């Protein structure tokens, strides 16, 4: 008669191999294969062995593949074991392991969602008790947050999440209430959520009465008041963020300003009760923004110098100082939505810089000032409320995809483009003043016409029942987004050469991308690899680190943009006879419209006994860019002459430099272009009798590009 697996022997083998390192590659076979895991799983509920067994199963699925009934049966039993755990810590650990592991989710994700949905209902008190046990509260809260995570990742229904949240009828214990407000905040970021779901926050705090079929006892009423006080600060912060999203998504200045006012009101409790730097900084920024936009509304959108406003300079200075202090003390998301702390701090630092700059530039157009602050807040919100979906690979979380808030296309996004347009107009004016009038005057005239049309569009209400394409069918995409569905667009831009509009569209796209706070996934990965390669450099310390990061970010984005740019806007990338001058002009323009504007210089003499192509000046040191156009097939890392020239400029400065090469060699075939990762690399070189290696970051711009329609 057949006997089942020896569970005690299997368990002991697992224990014997918990040494802190990777288990043997044949451990699964030693245990008895997938049937052994299936048999062991029901006995792992509330066991500390559950998490290492999950990790082992994930590893084996990655090696052997998931396409097996035996594998699925084992994973299903493990999901049951995790969700049956009553120990709060073991339950939370198992749920988290499942939610961040694609190998396990690909098989058991739907089953896990179903089990979590059943467990995510509000925790109930045991008989003769007024409140549920802390263990039950923790378990139900973790199940609710897990279901929200699974919905974001596509393994669960967001509509079932909405329904669950909407059915919350009374205040809840703090840990479960936190899960509710986090889930509502995430839902509002990503989907169209009914106001009834958002109103649940007011039920939690007691602002709205609970929904009972009979009047509650005094004990229940007192408990609810305590629950409401416990969650009030979290609820205040979440409601303020929801009102910010509503402002970002608004179509007009009037609507956006009303929502900003609601956000300020929602922050009132958090300001009064909590000494949180992020609350103080956000409140000050919103109040300043409210003043900027309110001035525009009161004066019917007429451009006025900010110096004529009733603006308290002391308040602006205090806000700038408060935000700077906040970037030092630090605050960031650290729960399941992902820890993006560094990105958030960068966003706050940018806001502080821009507010301080506005304080000193009160002769600027007031709508521009509003656009600056609104654009910073929009990017900061998007960065801090982005959800990173990760895989756990050999104990390291690897981001596999990013889910960003659905806030594009509203008043805030258009205001951000308005800011970019103002910056471009200013740059065009400077170039005309430098003697390039014939080349830029037509672009400036078109940009001014576009600005006037955009101003009218931002101030007006959206006309009902019209598509943007019906208003201005010939506009490039960013210009169409900036102008919205405004009836005066066609008249305002009548007579403007379509080619000039395309150039404006490209310039706005360049400015937007060069100033973006958040990175795309691939750009982030490329950036990380280069920074890791620079870590051994003795000079990659202190203030040099953020300086190199900023330059590197700009150059990677430049390469990425130029790999996607069409011939109609940057024709040198498709020309056979392009040269270094074409690259020089394009890259200099790019650097001058981003965060390096004002510290970027060209053709600087007497550097390393020569003349450098581009010098970027930081307090106490410089970074140098050497530019080349090359028509050979020799890989850039083998271009020793180029590399040696690049390090020559480091003779008395930081020993980190950049080599940017326009590749003009004829393609071997008309196939697809290489990947972005193939165009960015790093090398080191030693110099005789010199201490330490010199580091060179090499970036290649593909020239003589082939249109996608001609790829064979």
Mind explaining what this structure looks like?
α16 runs antiparallel to α17 (313-329) and α18 packs antiparallel against α19. This protein starts with 6 loop residues before the first helix and ends in a 10-residue tail after the last strand. The protein folds into 4 domains: 7-123 and 133-209 and 222-253, Leucine-rich Repeat Variant; 275-407, no CATH class; 417-511, no CATH class; 521-710, 3-Layer(aba) Sandwich (Restriction Endonuclease). It contains 29 helices and 8 strands. The protein has a 6-stranded mixed beta sheet, sandwiched between helices. A two-stranded antiparallel ribbon has the order 1-2. It has helices at residues 7-16, 27-31, 34-40, 50-64, 69-83, 88-99, 102-119, 134-153, 158-166, 174-190, 195-198, 200-205, 218-249, 253-266, 268-273, 277-298, 313-329, 341-360, 366-384, 411-433, 437-459, 468-471, 477-483, 489-492, 498-515, 521-534, 544-564, 580-592, 640-648, and strands at 387-393, 396-403, 600-607, 610-618, 621-630, 656-663, 680-685, 694-702. The longest helix is centred in the first third of the chain and has 32 residues, at 218-249. The protein is α/β, with parallel strands linked by helices. The chain is globular and about 85 Å long. A hairpin with a 2-residue loop joins β3 (600-607) and β4. Helix content is 57%, strand content 9%.
């Amino acid at each position: 008669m057949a006997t089942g697996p020896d569970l005690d022997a299997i368990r002991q083998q697992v224990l014997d191999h918990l040494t802190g390192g990777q288990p043997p590659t044949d451990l699964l076979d030693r245990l008895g294969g997938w049937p052994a895991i299936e048999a062991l799983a029901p006995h792992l509920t509330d066991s500390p062995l559950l998490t290492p067994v999950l990790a082992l199963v994930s590893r084996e699925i990655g090696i052997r593949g998931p396409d097996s009934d035996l594998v699925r049966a084992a994973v299903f039993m493990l999901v049951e074991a995790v969700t049956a755990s009553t120990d709060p810590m073991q339950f939370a650990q198992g749920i988290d392991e499942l939610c961040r592991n694609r190998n396990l989710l690909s098989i058991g994700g739907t089953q896990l969602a179903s089990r979590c949905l059943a467990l995510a209902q509000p925790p109930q008190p045991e008989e003769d008790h007024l409140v549920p046990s802390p263990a039950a509260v923790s378990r139900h809260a973790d199940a609710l947050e897990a279901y929200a995570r699974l919905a974001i990742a596509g393994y669960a229904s967001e509509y079932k999440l909405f329904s669950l949240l909407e059915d919350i009828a009374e205040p809840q214990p703090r840990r479960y209430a936190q899960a509710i407000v986090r889930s509502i905040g995430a839902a509002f970021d990503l989907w169209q959520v009914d106001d009834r779901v958002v109103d649940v926050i007011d039920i939690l705090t007691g602002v709205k009465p609970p929904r009972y079929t009979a009047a509650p006892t005094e004990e229940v009423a007192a408990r609810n008041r305590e629950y409401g006080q416990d969650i009030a600060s979290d609820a205040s912060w979440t409601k303020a963020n929801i009102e910010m999203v509503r402002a970002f998504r608004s179509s007009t200045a009037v609507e956006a300003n009303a929502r900003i006012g609601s956000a300020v009101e929602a922050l009132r409790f958090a300001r009064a009760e909590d000494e949180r730097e992020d609350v103080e900084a956000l409140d000050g920024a919103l109040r300043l923004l409210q003043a900027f936009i309110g001035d525009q509304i009161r004066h019917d959108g007429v451009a006025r110098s900010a110096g004529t406003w009733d603006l308290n300079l002391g308040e602006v200075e205090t806000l700038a100082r408060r935000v700077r202090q906040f970037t030092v003390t630090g605050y960031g998301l650290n729960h399941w939505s992902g820890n993006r702390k560094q990105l958030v701090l960068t966003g706050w630092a940018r806001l502080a810089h821009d507010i301080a700059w506005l304080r000193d530039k009160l002769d600027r157009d007031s709508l521009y000032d509003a656009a600056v602050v609104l654009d910073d807040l929009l990017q900061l919100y998007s960065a801090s409320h982005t959800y990173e979906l990760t895989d756990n690979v050999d104990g390291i979380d690897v981001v596999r995809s990013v889910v960003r808030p659905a806030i594009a296309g509203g008043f805030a996004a258009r205001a951000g483009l308005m800011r970019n347009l103002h910056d471009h107009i200013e740059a065009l004016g400077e170039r005309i003043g430098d003697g390039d009038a014939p080349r830029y005057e037509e672009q400036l005239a078109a940009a001014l016409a576009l600005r006037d049309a955009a101003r009218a569009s931002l101030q007006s209400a959206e006309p009902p029942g019209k598509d943007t394409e019906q208003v201005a069918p010939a506009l490039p995409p960013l210009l169409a987004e900036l102008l919205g569905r405004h009836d005066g667009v066609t008249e305002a831009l009548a007579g403007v050469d379509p080619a000039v509009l395309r150039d404006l569209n490209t310039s706005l796209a360049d400015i937007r991308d060069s100033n973006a706070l958040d990175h795309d996934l691939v750009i982030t990965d490329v950036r990380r690899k280069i920074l890791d390669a620079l870590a051994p450099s003795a000079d990659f310390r202190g203030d040099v680190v953020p300086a190199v990061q900023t330059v590197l970010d700009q150059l990677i984005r430049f390469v990425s943009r130029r790999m996607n740019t069409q011939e109609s806007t940057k024709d040198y990338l498709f020309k056979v006879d392009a040269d270094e001058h074409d690259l020089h002009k394009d890259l200099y323009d790019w650097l001058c419209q981003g965060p390096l504007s004002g510290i970027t210089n060209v053709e600087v003499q007497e550097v390393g006994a020569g003349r450098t192509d581009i010098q970027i000046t930081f307090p106490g040191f410089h970074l140098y860019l050497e530019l080349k156009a090359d028509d050979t097939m020799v890989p850039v890392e083998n271009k020793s002459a180029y590399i040696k020239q690049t390090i020559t400029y480091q003779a008395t400065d930081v020993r980190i430099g950049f080599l940017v090469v326009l590749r003009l060699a004829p393609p071997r075939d008309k196939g697809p272009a290489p990947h972005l990762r193939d165009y960015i690399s790093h090398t080191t070189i030693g110099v005789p009798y010199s201490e330490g290696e010199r580091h060179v970051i090499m970036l290649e711009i593909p020239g003589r590009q082939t249109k996608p329609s001609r790829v064979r």
